[in-house]
C-alpha cells in the first residue's frame, strides 16, 4: 500500500517536470549561422557527387561500425541535424530517395544551390518562389515533350541501353570499389535479375517478382551470379537421396515447436501425472505421418520445428528446413505455389502443397546453400553478391537494390535522361532562352517586374549549372558547348586552346568535339541560345544515362523544398 | 510559502505582444512559413496561427490562457487565429494607454496600479457588453451590404457565376499554403465537394460529413511533388492485405467487417484451465483437444463465409496465423487492424453492420464492392476498394483524397489546411444567428413576408429584408484585405459620434472608440510593407460607403434580385469597378469575422479579470489546471450561447 502511493507520487512528480521553453529564430535565412550550415552541407554533398566522388567515413565517436559511403541515403541519415532547416531539407530528400532510389544527391545539391542563389540576389522571397515554380513547370513540360533534346527512348529489344542505365547507377557509387570489368559484370547481372523478375505471360495485371539478394564476403566480385529460383540456408549434413522430380513440398507458417499460443491469456494448471508435452508431440508426429503419406519430400517451416518431428521426418528421407523467416515466405509461396498451413489438428488440404522441380546443393566457400529450382516459369530469382570486404559488400548490396528499383521505374516510363551533367546544362540553356523570350508575358502573371523575373531566372539556371559543375572533383574546368548545350570537362593540366583534343566526348558521350565548336566556361556569362537538337542518326550511343522518372521527381522535389525553405520566416525549436 | 505575483496590465500586454511578434511573421500577403521541430525531432511547417501557437511551450500562464482561447476559436471556425492575437494585442495596448492616462476614472484606489487594473477591467467588461448587444446590428447595417452571398451550390457548379466561392477558397488557401499552391488546392477542394455532394439534399450535410470523416478520407504521401495530389475513387484502407491477394477475381465482390477475433480465445484473462489425470474431458487427447476445437471453429466460420460468397474480410483486430492460413486456403483477402474511423466510414458507405459474433452471420452484414485491390502510395501498400451501388443508395460518388508533398511536415500542413477549409466554410455558411432577435424588437415582424416581392424604397423595410436574408440565407462574404475592418471602423466611428451627441455622458469614454481604433491595426499589418497601400485601401473602401442612409437602402434594392437567385452579386453596382478591384484581394467570411471579434473580446475580459498569479512547487498541477480549465470553460460557454 505504502509502495503504491509512493510510486504514484513519483509518477506525478515525473509528470510535473517543467518543459523548457522553445528556442526561436526570427528570419533564419538572414542569419549567417544558418547560411554557413547550409553551405557546409552543400560542400559536403557536392564532394560526394558523381563517379569520381570523394568518399565519406561516418563513425560515431562513442563506438560502433565505421561506414564508408558516398550514397545520399546513408550520408543524409548520418548528418545529425543541428538546425530545423537542415532537417527539413534532409527529410524531403530522404523521402525522395526512398521512393525512387536515385538522384538524391542531385536533388539536395540543386535545392541547396537554389537557396544560396536566392540569398545572393536581392529579391523579395515571394517573387523568387513564384518564378521558381514557373520555371519548374517550364522544365517539366520540356522534359515531357517527345522531342526533348536530353531524353532518350529506351529500347527494350536490346539490353544495351538497360545495361548502360544500370552501369551509370553502379559507377556513380565509388564506394563499391569496382574495376571496369567488375562494374560491367555487376551491371549485366542487375539487368539479368531484373529481366528474370518480369513475368513472361502477362495476365491483365503485371505483377513483378522478387530478387532475393545474398551477400557473400571474401570472394571476388566476378564470382557474383544470378540464379532462377531460391537459395536457402541448409542444415550441415544434408543428404540428398535419389529424389524424383518434381518434389512435393509443404510450408508451415505456424510454429511447430509444440507451443499452444492461441489458447488465450488465461492460466493453465497442470496436475501431477498429466504429460501435456507428450500429448503435443504425439499430435505433431500425427501431422508428420500424414505428410509422409502424401509423399512430401520438402518440409519448410517459417518458425521452429520440434526436434522430435525433425528427426522423424529426416529419418524418412524428407528435407527439413526450419526458421525460414518472414521475408522469404512470400518469394517461396510465389515460387512453389504452396499455401502456408497454420493448423496442426486438421489434415493438410491437397491444394496447400506446392512443388519444386528439383533441389541441389551449391557450395559457396565455407557455406552450402540449397537451391530450389522452379517447377515452371517463375519470377523469383536469387542474386549472390560477392566482394572482398564487408564495407564494400554492404554498399554493393545497397547499390544493386537501387539499380533494380531504377530499372523497374523504366517500365513506368520507358525513357532515360542523358547523364554526365548534360541534362543539367541543356535544361539551363533552355530555361535561359525561354525566360528571355517570355519575359513580357510571364512577369505580369507572376506579379513582378521584368528585371526581377530575369534575375530570378538567372539564379535558377546558375543553380542547375552548379550541379553539373559538382561532378568535377580534380580541379578540372566545366564547360558548356554553345550548340547542343552539353557538359564538357577539361582536365586541370590541359590547355584551353586544345579543348578538342583534351575532351573528345561530352559528359554523356553523345556529342563529339570538332573544330568549329564553341565552348564557354560554366558559371560565366554567355549569350543565351536555343540548344540545337541532336541529329537523329547520331553514330554514338550515350555512355551515361540517368533514370527519367527519378530525375524529374528529384527536380520537382528540389524546387518545392527550396521554395518551402525560402518561405520560412520564423523557426521554433523544441529543445526538450 | 507560495510566491505571489501581482499581475499588472503591462505584464498582460507584454505576454500578448510576444505572441503577436511570432504570429506577425506569417500574417498577411507577405507573411511566410513558421518552421518548428518537436521534441521528437519531427519537423513541422505551418502558416496556421493555431498550430504555431500550440507548438510553443509557453511558460507564462497568461500566454497559455490566450493560446487556449485562440485554439478554441479556430477549432470551431478554422480560421482567424492570427487576427485574433493581433486584435487582442491592439485592444490591450489601447486599454493600457487609456488606463494609464486616466487611472482614476471610476473609483479612487490606493495605488496607481490597482486603479489602472480596475479601469482596464471595467473597460473590457463594457466592451464585451457593447459587442454582445450592438455589434451584430452594426455589422448587419454597415458591413453586409458590401458583401456577397455564396452558397454551396456555387462551389460545385461549373459556371462562371461561382467566382466568389472560388475566390473565398483561394484566399483561404493562400493564407495557409502561400501563393504557389492555392489555385491547385482550390480546384482539388471543389472537385472533392462535387463528388461528395448529395443530390437533392442540404449541402452543408455533405460538408459536415467530410469534415467528420476527413481522417479516414485522406492519405498523406511524402517524397512526391505536391502536384501529384489527386482524388481517387472509392475508399482507401490504410493497411496492407495480410493474406496474398489473388490476381483475377470475379466481380462484384462480397465483403464483411469483423469487430473481434475470428479464432475464439479459449481462455480469457482470469480463467483457469485445470488438467487432471484421468479426467473425463482430457482422457482422450488432453490439452490438444482444446486447441483443435478452436481451429475447428475457425474452419466453420470460413466455411459459412464461403457459403455466402464472401471474399474480402476487414478486421479491426490482429488475427491468428491459423485464421490467415485458413483465409488464404479459401481464397479470401484479409485485412487486419483496420482503424475505427475507417471501419465507421466503410459501414456508413456500404450500409452494413460489423459482425461481432462470428456464429451469427446474416446477409445484412455483407457489403458489395466493385473492386478491392492493393494500391501503392508512397512507401506503403494500402487496400483500395469501391462500393457497388453507392450512387443509387447514397446518391454520392465516394472518393478519397491523396495529398502529396516532398516532406511529411508539408503533407501534414496541406491536410490541416484542407480540414480547416471545411470548418471555415461551415462557419461561413452558418447564418449570423444573433441578429434575429436584435432587430425584431424594433421592427414589426409581419412586414417581412409581404415585402419580399416588390421593391419598396422604405429604408426600414429594406433593413428587415436584408436582415432576413442573413438569418435565413447563409454564407455572406466580403472582400479581404481589411475591408471588414475598414467598414466596421467607419460604422463604429459613426456610432460613437451619434452616441456622444445624443447622450451627453462625456465623462465616460465611449467604448466603441476603443474597438474602432483597435480594428485598424489589422489592415495596418496587412499593408505593413507599404503604408501608401494602406491609405489607398482605406480610401477605396470608405468611398464605397454612401453618405446618406437613403442611398444605403437604394443599394440593397439594387442587389436584391441577384441575391435571391443565389448567384454572385456585387452589392453596390454603381461602384462596380471598385468592388471588382477589391475582389483581387480575395474574400473572407463575415460570420467568421464576427465570431472572431466576439471571441477576442471574451478573451480580453477573461484576461483582465485575473489579478494575481500563484506559483507553487507542490503537486498542484491538478488544481492549477482545473482553475485554468474552469476559466476557459466559462469562456467556452460564452462562446457557444
Automatic annotation (TrEMBL), chain A:
GO CC terms: cytoplasm; kinociliary basal body; nucleus
InterPro entries per the UniProt record, alphabetical: Cpn60/GroEL/TCP-1 (IPR002423), GroEL-like_apical_dom_sf (IPR027409), GROEL-like_equatorial_sf (IPR027413), MKKS (IPR028790), TCP-1-like_intermed_sf (IPR027410)
SUPFAM superfamilies: GroEL apical domain-like, GroEL equatorial domain-like
Coiled-coil segments on the chain, per record: none
Superkingdom, taxonomy of origin: Eukaryota
GO biological process: camera-type eye development; chaperone-mediated protein complex assembly; cilium assembly; convergent extension involved in gastrulation; heart looping; inner ear development; Kupffer's vesicle development; melanosome transport
Pfam families in the cross-refs: Cpn60_TCP1
Gene Ontology terms, MF aspect: ATP binding; unfolded protein binding
PANTHER family: MOLECULAR CHAPERONE MKKS, SYNDROMES PUTATIVE CHAPERONIN-RELATED
Annotated protein name in UniProt: MKKS centrosomal shuttling protein
Gene source species: Poecilia latipinna (sailfin molly)
TrEMBL record, chain B:
Organism name: Poecilia latipinna (sailfin molly)
Pfam families hit by this protein: Cpn60_TCP1
Protein name according to UniProt: Bardet-Biedl syndrome 10
Family as reported in the entry's similarity comment: Belongs to the TCP-1 chaperonin family.
UniProt xrefs under InterPro entries: BBS10 (IPR042619), Chaperone_TCP-1 (IPR017998), Cpn60/GroEL/TCP-1 (IPR002423), GroEL-like_apical_dom_sf (IPR027409), GROEL-like_equatorial_sf (IPR027413), TCP-1-like_intermed_sf (IPR027410)
Keyword terms: ATP-binding, Chaperone, Nucleotide-binding
Biological-process GO terms, alphabetical: chaperone-mediated protein complex assembly
Nucleotide-binding as UniProt keyword: yes
GO molecular function per UniProt: ATP binding; ATP-dependent protein folding chaperone
Amino acid at each position: 500500500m505504502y509502495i503504491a502511493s509512493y510510486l504514484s507520487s513519483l509518477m506525478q512528480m515525473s509528470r510535473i517536470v517543467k518543459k523548457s521553453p522553445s528556442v526561436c529564430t526570427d528570419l533564419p535565412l538572414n542569419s549567417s549561422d544558418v547560411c554557413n550550415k547550409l553551405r557546409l552541407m552543400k560542400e559536403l554533398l557536392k564532394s560526394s557527387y558523381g563517379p569520381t566522388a570523394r568518399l565519406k567515413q561516418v563513425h560515431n565517436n562513442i563506438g560502433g561500425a565505421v561506414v564508408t559511403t558516398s550514397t545520399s541515403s546513408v550520408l543524409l541519415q548520418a548528418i545529425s541535424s543541428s538546425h530545423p532547416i537542415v532537417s527539413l531539407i534532409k527529410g524531403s530528400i530522404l523521402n525522395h530517395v526512398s521512393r525512387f532510389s536515385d538522384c538524391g544527391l542531385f536533388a539536395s545539391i540543386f535545392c541547396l544551390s537554389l537557396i544560396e542563389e536566392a540569398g545572393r540576389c536581392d529579391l523579395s522571397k515571394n517573387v523568387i518562389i513564384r518564378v521558381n515554380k514557373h520555371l519548374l513547370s517550364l522544365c517539366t513540360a520540356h522534359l515531357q515533350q517527345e522531342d526533348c533534346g536530353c531524353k532518350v527512348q529506351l529500347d527494350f529489344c536490346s539490353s544495351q541501353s538497360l545495361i548502360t542505365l544500370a552501369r551509370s547507377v553502379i559507377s556513380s557509387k565509388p564506394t563499391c570499389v569496382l574495376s571496369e570489368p567488375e562494374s560491367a559484370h555487376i551491371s549485366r547481372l542487375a539487368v539479368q535479375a531484373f529481366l528474370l523478375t518480369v513475368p513472361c505471360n502477362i495476365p491483365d495485371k503485371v505483377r513483378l517478382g522478387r530478387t532475393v539478394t545474398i551477400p557473400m564476403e571474401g570472394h571476388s566480385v566476378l564470382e557474383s551470379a544470378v540464379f532462377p529460383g531460391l537459395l536457402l540456408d541448409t542444415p550441415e549434413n544434408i543428404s540428398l537421396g535419389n529424389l524424383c522430380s518434381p518434389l512435393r513440398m509443404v510450408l508451415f507458417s505456424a510454429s511447430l515447436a509444440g507451443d499452444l499460443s492461441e489458447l488465450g491469456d488465461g492460466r493453465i494448471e497442470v496436475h501431477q501425472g498429466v504429460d501435456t508435452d507428450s500429448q503435443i508431440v504425439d499430435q505433431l508426429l500425427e501431422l508428420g505421418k500424414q505428410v509422409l503419406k502424401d509423399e512430401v519430400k520438402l518440409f519448410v517451416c517459417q518458425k521452429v520445428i520440434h526436434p522430435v518431428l525433425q528427426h522423424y521426418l529426416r529419418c524418412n528421407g524428407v528435407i527439413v528446413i526450419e526458421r525460414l523467416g518472414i521475408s522469404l515466405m512470400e518469394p517461396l509461396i510465389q515460387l512453389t505455389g504452396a499455401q502456408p498451413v497454420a493448423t496442426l489438428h486438421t489434415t493438410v488440404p491437397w491444394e496447400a502443397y506446392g512443388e519444386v522441380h528439383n533441389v541441389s546443393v551449391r557450395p559457396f566457400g565455407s557455406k552450402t546453400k540449397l537451391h530450389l529450382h522452379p517447377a515452371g516459369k517463375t519470377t523469383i530469382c536469387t542474386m549472390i553478391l560477392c566482394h572482398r570486404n564487408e564495407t564494400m559488400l554492404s554498399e554493393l548490396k545497397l547499390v544493386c537494390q537501387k539499380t533494380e528499383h531504377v530499372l523497374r521505374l523504366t517500365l513506368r516510363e520507358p525513357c532515360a535522361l542523358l547523364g554526365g551533367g548534360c541534362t543539367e546544362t541543356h535544361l539551363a540553356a533552355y530555361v535561359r532562352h525561354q525566360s528571355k523570350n517570355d519575359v513580357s508575358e510571364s512577369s505580369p502573371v507572376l506579379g513582378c517586374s521584368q528585371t526581377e523575373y530575369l534575375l530570378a531566372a538567372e539564379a535558377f539556371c546558375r543553380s542547375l549549372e552548379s550541379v553539373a559543375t559538382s561532378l568535377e572533383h580534380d580541379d578540372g574546368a566545366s564547360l558548356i558547348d554553345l550548340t547542343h548545350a552539353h557538359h564538357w570537362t577539361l582536365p586541370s593540366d590541359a590547355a584551353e586552346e586544345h579543348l578538342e583534343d583534351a575532351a573528345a566526348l561530352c559528359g554523356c558521350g553523345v556529342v563529339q568535339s570538332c573544330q568549329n565548336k564553341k565552348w564557354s566556361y560554366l558559371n560565366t556569362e554567355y549569350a543565351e541560345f536555343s540548344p540545337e537538337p541532336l541529329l537523329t542518326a547520331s553514330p554514338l550511343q550515350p555512355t551515361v544515362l540517368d533514370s527519367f522518372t527519378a530525375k524529374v521527381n528529384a527536380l520537382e522535389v528540389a524546387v518545392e523544398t527550396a521554395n518551402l525553405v525560402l518561405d520560412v520566416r520564423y523557426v521554433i525549436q523544441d529543445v526538450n | 510559502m507560495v510566491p505571489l505575483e501581482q499581475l499588472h496590465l503591462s505584464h498582460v500586454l507584454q505576454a500578448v505582444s510576444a505572441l503577436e511578434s511570432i504570429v506577425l511573421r506569417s500574417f498577411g500577403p507577405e507573411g511566410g512559413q513558421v518552421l518548428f521541430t518537436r521534441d521528437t525531432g519531427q519537423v513541422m511547417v505551418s502558416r496556421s496561427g493555431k498550430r504555431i501557437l500550440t507548438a510553443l511551450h509557453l511558460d507564462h500562464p497568461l500566454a497559455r490562457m490566450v493560446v487556449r482561447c485562440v485554439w478554441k476559436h479556430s477549432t470551431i471556425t478554422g480560421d482567424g487565429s492570427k487576427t485574433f492575437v493581433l486584435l487582442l494585442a491592439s485592444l490591450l495596448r489601447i486599454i493600457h494607454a487609456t488606463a494609464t492616462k486616466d487611472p482614476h476614472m471610476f473609483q479612487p484606489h490606493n495605488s496607481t496600479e490597482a486603479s489602472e487594473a480596475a479601469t482596464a477591467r471595467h473597460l473590457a467588461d463594457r466592451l464585451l457588453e457593447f459587442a454582445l448587444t450592438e455589434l451584430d446590428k452594426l455589422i448587419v447595417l454597415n458591413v453586409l451590404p458590401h458583401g456577397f452571398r455564396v452558397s454551396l451550390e456555387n462551389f460545385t457548379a461549373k459556371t462562371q457565376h461561382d467566382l466568389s466561392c472560388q475566390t473565398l477558397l483561394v484566399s483561404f488557401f493562400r493564407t495557409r499554403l502561400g501563393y504557389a499552391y492555392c489555385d491547385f488546392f482550390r480546384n482539388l477542394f471543389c472537385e472533392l465537394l462535387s463528388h461528395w455532394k448529395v443530390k437533392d439534399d442540404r449541402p452543408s450535410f455533405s460538408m459536415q460529413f467530410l469534415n467528420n470523416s476527413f481522417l479516414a478520407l485522406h492519405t498523406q504521401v511524402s517524397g512526391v511533388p505536391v502536384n501529384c495530389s489527386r482524388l481517387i475513387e472509392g475508399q482507401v484502407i490504410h493497411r496492407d492485405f495480410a493474406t496474398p491477394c489473388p490476381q483475377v477475381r470475379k466481380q462484384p465482390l462480397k465483403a464483411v467487417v469483423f469487430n473481434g477475433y475470428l479464432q475464439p480465445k479459449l481462455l480469457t484473462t482470469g480463467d483457469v484451465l485445470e488438467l487432471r489425470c484421468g479426467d473425463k474431458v482430457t482422457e482422450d487427447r488432453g490439452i490438444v483437444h482444446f486447441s483443435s476445437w478452436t481451429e475447428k471453429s475457425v474452419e466453420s466460420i470460413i466455411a459459412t463465409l464461403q457459403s455466402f460468397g464472401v471474399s474480402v474480410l476487414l478486421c479491426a483486430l490482429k488475427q491468428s496465423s491459423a485464421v490467415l492460413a485458413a483465409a488464404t486456403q479459401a481464397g479470401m483477402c484479409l485485412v487486419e487492424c483496420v482503424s475505427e474511423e475507417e471501419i465507421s466510414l466503410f459501414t456508413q458507405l456500404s450500409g452494413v453492420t460489423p459482425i461481432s459474433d462470428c456464429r451469427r452471420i446474416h446477409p445484412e452484414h455483407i457489403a458489395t464492392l466493385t473492386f478491392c485491390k492493393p494500391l501503392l502510395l508512397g512507401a506503403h501498400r494500402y487496400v483500395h476498394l469501391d462500393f457497388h451501388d453507392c450512387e443509387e443508395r447514397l446518391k454520392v460518388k465516394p472518393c478519397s483524397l491523396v495529398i502529396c508533398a516532398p516532406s511529411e511536415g508539408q503533407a501534414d500542413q496541406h491536410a490541416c489546411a484542407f480540414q480547416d477549409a471545411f470548418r471555415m466554410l461551415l462557419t461561413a455558411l452558418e447564418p449570423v444567428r444573433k441578429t434575429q432577435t436584435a432587430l425584431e424588437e424594433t421592427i414589426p415582424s409581419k412586414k417581412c413576408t409581404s415585402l419580399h416581392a416588390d421593391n419598396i424604397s422604405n429604408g426600414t423595410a429594406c433593413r428587415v429584408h436584408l436582415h432576413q436574408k442573413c438569418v435565413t440565407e447563409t454564407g455572406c462574404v466580403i472582400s479581404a484585405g481589411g475591408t471588414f475592418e475598414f467598414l466596421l471602423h467607419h460604422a463604429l466611428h459613426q456610432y460613437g459620434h451619434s452616441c456622444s451627441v445624443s447622450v451627453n455622458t462625456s465623462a465616460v469614454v465611449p467604448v466603441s472608440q476603443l474597438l474602432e481604433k483597435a480594428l485598424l491595426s489589422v489592415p495596418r499589418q496587412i499593408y505593413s510593407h507599404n503604408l501608401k497601400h494602406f491609405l489607398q485601401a482605406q480610401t477605396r473602401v470608405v468611398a464605397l460607403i454612401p453618405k446618406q442612409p437613403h442611398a444605403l437602402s437604394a443599394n440593397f434594392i439594387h442587389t436584391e434580385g441577384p441575391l435571391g437567385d443565389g448567384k454572385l452579386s456585387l452589392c453596390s453596382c454603381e461602384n462596380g469597378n471598385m468592388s471588382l478591384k477589391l475582389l483581387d484581394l480575395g474574400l473572407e467570411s463575415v460570420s467568421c469575422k464576427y465570431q472572431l471579434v466576439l471571441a477576442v473580446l471574451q478573451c480580453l475580459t477573461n484576461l483582465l479579470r485575473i489579478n494575481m498569479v500563484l506559483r507553487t512547487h507542490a503537486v498542484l498541477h491538478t488544481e492549477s489546471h482545473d482553475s485554468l480549465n474552469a476559466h476557459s470553460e466559462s469562456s467556452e460557454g460564452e462562446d457557444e450561447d
